[in-house]
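Why show two proteins at once? Because comparison is the fastest way to build intuition. When a single record is shown, students tend to memorize it. When two are placed side by side, the eye starts asking what differs. So, the first record is below.
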Amino acid sequence: MSPQYQEPPQSPLFHAQNAERYERQQLIRDYEGFFNCRLIVMIDAIFHDSVTMLGELIYDCDPSVALHLMINSPGGLGEVAVRLARSAQSRCSELTVIIPDQAKSAATLLALGGHRIVMAPASDLGPIDPQFFDGQGWVAAKDIIAAVEDAILRVQESPETYPIHVSLLSGVTATMVQQARSALGSTESLLIQALQSNPDRFGDEVDRLTQSLRGPLIEGPQSHTALFGAEDARKSGLPVQIVAPDSPQWKMLWRLWTKYFAVGLSRSIYESNSVSQVFDRTYPPEG
């Protein structure tokens, strides 16, 4: 009996134009079959529309099946990250967050809501201090407050430098400073809410992890770019699985990750075995 040729459901030209997309989705299906789970991919900064975009990926998830979320993100809005963790947890039996490269700031909060965090030696989390987007890039709330306090001190010591500091801080308003202070004050609350997003994590464990993570993720870092790698996370008590680079799981994940790297990490990508959204991110004024 001769083999049967099976036509792709798409037209030949459309299939050719989107071949890379279909190749990534096939790798996702291969991983799902091998690890008996649902795999979704999020490569983006975390903003309000991320709730809908992630919801599109999990709308048909079987809540009795494990969900693996591969994420690469510079961060974004902490409150939204907690909502994403809660949303993902509501659609699966167990949530595993996979970090092939980095999940910084708000993305770290999202990772804290998982049952397990899969990392390799080079994977990185980071401080969860709030950020503000000033139209050109992200500015840490800590840096805004520190710059203003330093300027006040210098002007007190040398009043003649007042015009210089006014010029240097021309883009900083009193409202922005107050927002930065308020955001910093709510950081520990967001940490607790993120940890509580895991429905199988209870009071004592939440308290223990809060105490362990407060220093390295909130109080200690002098820079928003501070590293918090796999070993740091594991020593802090997080459920981290450090996978060997030569393991079958990491080889499959890395092959998929490099496909996204080739697309360009400046683009926003939300993908599953049946959904694919790839677009250029327009940043909002707030961070």
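Second record. Ask yourself what differs from the first in the token line.
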Amino acid sequence: MKVVIVGSGGREHALGVKSVECRAVEKIFFIPGNPGTKEIGENVQINPDDHDAVLKFCLEHKIDLVVIGPEKPLTEGLSDKLREHRINVFGPSKKAARLEGEKSFAKELMLNNNIPTAAFKVFFKENYKEAVSYLNSVSYPTVIKADGIAAGKGVIIAENVEQAKAAIDECFVSSTFGEAGNKVVIEEFMTGQEASVFAITDGTNFILLPAAQDHKKIFDGDKGKNTGGMGAYAPTPFVTENDLQRIATEIVEPTLTAMRNIGNPFAGCLYCGLMMTNEGPKVVEFNCRFGDPETQVVLPLLEGDFVELLKSSAVGKLNMDSVKYNGGASVCVVAASGGYPDKYEKGFEIKGLDAVNKSVKIYHAGTKEVGGKIVTNGGRVLNITSFSEKNDLIEAKKIAYEAVSKISFQGMHYRKDIADKAIKK
């Protein structure tokens, strides 16, 4: 089987590492990939935004399965383009990907189908005055979200009305998030522990993978600005077996049913970003693909045929028995560039990669190769990921941070408290 993985980050590297374990896989191509993916497959220098070029490559190389990693190609319709030519694709259609691409669409769908989520109101850019006025009537903290895709950074938690007005100005006046901020969702602030649950589905049937917990803030103790994710661990003790059952029956099933009912069935990975509240799990957001860096800690916890899981979803007949939880635990620490998520410099040599124990996975995210050396090339540079066979997060954390201590580059920043919430619990 020939597989194409679309994307160039740590998530795609992790998807590739898991896929090469499957015996049916003959070769993996990455479009465009990174220096890490080059070690397990072939990088193809095609821009994923060039759908015609991606299609041509897949047809010429008789690709059996395409796995689309990032949200942008999905929300722009790459999966539709490939399916029109009978290529198996793991990832939803453009219309189904609206669940991530338009937060207001997802919120309305949840409201109309009694799917638990925070109370909300939607405002357009031309309703600036009404939005600002509304902020005087809500309780604080409150949450303001850019409606479109903003690379995980379009969510602001405002502690008071002044911060809330500043957030509205970021979206409507400064256009910090571009077109994604031309519409905003103002919603109730929910309290509890956040969790990420991936539902792999063919549009009707689905399985839930082990729950993870992401760490969005840049600094320890969940301080500072939101990022694309500074680390994750799995499984999380904040999601019990009973919680998973409720997530299945109260969130995933009605969401898939609602999408079928409006003629846009969702097949692929439905990422459920959840708040585990006192009333039970509630949806913070849906994404239309695997999360990053949650993928890096969830995939090591699976045994079985991962590619069979993805392909069976793609062909519309999910193999419910293709994978299962192996009983382990995993911790991922993101090594980021100094200054991220604001301005940062690139091009610093990364040292110590060869010194890390081979049992630890070093997933490349923002890297490139220059003159035979690996250098920084992004905000989130590396995902250092451990695995403990006995579901021991203390051991998994220790292994991960021992590996982190051997790696260095100028300005390297990372959180030191990944998985501490679970360990303290």
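One difference worth noting in the second protein: Residues 329-424 form a domain with the Glycinamide Ribonucleotide Synthetase; Chain A, domain 4 fold (CATH 3.90.600.10).
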